[in-house]
């Protein structure tokens, strides 16, 4: 691998590629296999999830070769390469120093070398990476959330249309869609087993996630990129990054997206310099066109009660759902309508890859997850807009929002739009004052 340790070298690495653009074979059903009979995979964003998704691709058992990797940081790419190559060896890991790309631009070259791409950088980059993958005609697995502001969502929605027109499979890591309890219960709800769904409650309440503290010598851009969870241009706040899973379930159950959001939120506990700008709690109601209301709650309070699940009420009964394979439907007298068997359920992170790659090796076009993922991500963003502004927001107002959080320039020495004050603390939203759209 090239020595990319200096900050300046981080930026220029896109010039290092030696592989040329490959003609996308995917548009021709049955013509997927590379000459060596392997599907070529590239991973963009080689952190925990990008690395894990490569494992899951290999675990499908189909002939897959990892041919390119791209990450903003050398050390993250190195760690991922080590983990993948140690586990799967040279037969599956055909990455060479010339197909490892470090910096902001390398994703284009990595995508060009592959038939299938995994997009798992922080969500602020997803619109850019997804647009490029679609432009290059690739099959796509991308992680949620798919953007961090309405400007990004509109890009993803446009690229989702292009992906459909090109018949590119797109699976998004909202893995509850690939989890049996959710599939079985929501099929029954859509069949009318609970009557009309009039309300529900969705929760992601837990103690929070990692903090990557500022290190000496980091530029502001590098610091924010490392500690990405706490900056909205990268993360979208935890209502977007995590709670999208539960909000997406509400949309799936309702088979609709809300028309209105109102709520409250703030920073009660997590107020340090390394906590950037995000809130530590949001509480909202989302109203749907039929008048039904979903209560949404997410918080990062260490030591408080944890709860990550979804409940819904209908005219005939109610349901309890969770990622722990729960699916308990009862009528209003307490009689069972359906109880999901929690034993021996497939891992949904594996299942989404099993289903995607099974389609890919057969040359089938089966998956178009991007539009729903964009609209569920937008629902979460609308929630953040409502808690940050303290205003009641309609779907159309939120989706047409013009505040673009993305930096004007991507460079290690360039300034993100949000900067700390002289004491090192970041400004954050003040409901009633902050303009969000
Ligand atoms: N589906 C799920 O349940 C689930 C679980 C965890 C994470 N995720 C999602 O996966 C994504 C990644 O999360 P993670 O936990 O792996 O974070 P991570 O910090 O471990 O990994 C992100 C990687 O992306 C790299 N990166 C940053 N900017 C980049 C750029 N412009 N181009 C290429 N690489 C870039 C980082 O250096 C890092 O290595 C997030 O969107 C997250 O929400 C989904």
UniProtKB/TrEMBL annotation:
PROSITE patterns: TAT. Residues 1-33 form the signal peptide. Residues 40-165 form the Gfo/Idh/MocA-like oxidoreductase N-terminal domain. The lineage of its organism: Bacteria, Pseudomonadati, Bacteroidota, Cytophagia, Cytophagales. InterPro entries: Gfo/Idh/MocA-like_OxRdtase_N, Gfo/Idh/MocA_oxidrdct_glycsds, GFO_IDH_MocA-like_dom, NAD(P)-bd_dom_sf, TAT_signal, TAT_signal_bac_arc. Transmembrane segments: none annotated. Residues 182-319 form the GFO/IDH/MocA-like oxidoreductase domain. NCBIfam families: TAT_signal_seq. The keyword Signal applies. PANTHER family: BCDNA.GH03377, OXIDOREDUCTASE FAMILY PROTEIN. Keywords: Signal. This is Gfo/Idh/MocA family oxidoreductase. It comes from Algoriphagus taiwanensis. The keyword Signal applies. It holds the Pfam family GFO_IDH_MocA.
